[in-house]
Amino acid sequence: MLTFFSANSTVTFNPVIKLNALCSRLKAEYTLSDSLYRFGLAGEWRKHSHKALGFHHYIGRHILIEACWKPTQKMPIPTLEALLDQMKWAVDAVGLTRLYQYSEQFNDGSLVAAIVIQESHIILHGYADGRLVIDAYTCGSADPQEIIIELSQRLPIGVNNSRLLVRGLHENNAGDEGWCTDPRRLRLGIREEIPSKVLVQNIHSPRTLTPTGFHGIAEFYGCNSTKINTAERMVEIFEDLSDQLGLEQLQKYQHPFQPQGLSVTFIAKGFHMTVHSWPELHYAPVDLYCDRSESMIRTLLTQMQRALDAKEMVLHVKERGIVALIENKVVDKHDVSLKL
């Protein structure tokens, strides 16, 4: 909000309202948040959207990307080793700490590449038809959009659809720059926003493809703090759930933090499951993607709720990989993302 003073009057100028009107008048291709980002007013957009919500603090942000390879002569599709190297570079460029990385190519042409970051992750699943399913989760002030921007500058990726999920919503009890220390300040829910930095392509005449899988994004509240702070117990729970899927070449990683908290990641072909826990808040965000049915996702995460003794679960299930491949380009066909 900008205020101008003159001898006889005071004029208030709201850049959000003005830019919104401008976008509508010119029928701009970009969203309001995209325009604010270009004019350096993204902070104004966040301030107004947070004010409407009533609280604006969060533990983490999670971006979901639907994309496909879009190679050129200067930038061909990378090898698996080069892909992982570029993902490392993107994480390093944002200033995050890498804990573990893994990549694998399978006989059917699909692949997976993953990097576990401190209380965060970025995971990419690639398919033989060129489709890519990417998600990046970061906690604190780190912005997962920045990772995707760095990655897209060094890889021949055409972004079809991007969704930004704000997780671990809370009313901070330690000031604007502090961290939530009281579990009673947590607020149930996941807020979905329009990503202000990652732009999608506007392409027409789509060809429908079947989804690559379903993605369950779960928030567990009121968890048993001992269970979500014990790596061995979390690995047992993950193993029990993954055994029901009959996965092969399953990769497992666990990392305990001091004085408390942990990250556990399981990765396989067309599958990943992660948790980053905050025992002091009795809170655990879980991420489960696999190429099975939506009902299977819901069943597994309901079992996890019981295993963690969680009092509440908020679950969103996203259908992933619905894109159209047209001359190495992509189009969003439909989205059945929000299911509570």
Describe the structure.
This protein has 340 residues and is of the alpha+beta class. The protein has two domains: 1-54, no CATH class; 55-320, S-adenosylmethionine decarboxylase. It is 25% helix and 32% strand. It is built from seven helices and 15 strands. The protein has helices at 15-26, 32-38, 42-53, 80-94, 144-154, 231-243, 294-307, and strands spanning 2-5, 10-13, 60-69, 98-105, 111-117, 120-126, 131-139, 157-167, 191-193, 213-221, 251-256, 262-268, 271-276, 283-290, 312-320. The chain has a seven-stranded antiparallel β-sheet with strand order 4-5-6-7-3-8-9, with helices on one face. The chain has a six-stranded antiparallel β-sheet with strand order 11-12-13-14-10-15, covered by helices on one side. A two-stranded antiparallel ribbon has the order 1-2. A hairpin with a 2-residue loop joins strand 5 (111-117) and strand 6 (120-126). It starts with a strand and ends in a 20-residue tail after the last strand. The model is unreliable at 4-13, 16-55, 202-207 and 325-340 (pLDDT under 50).
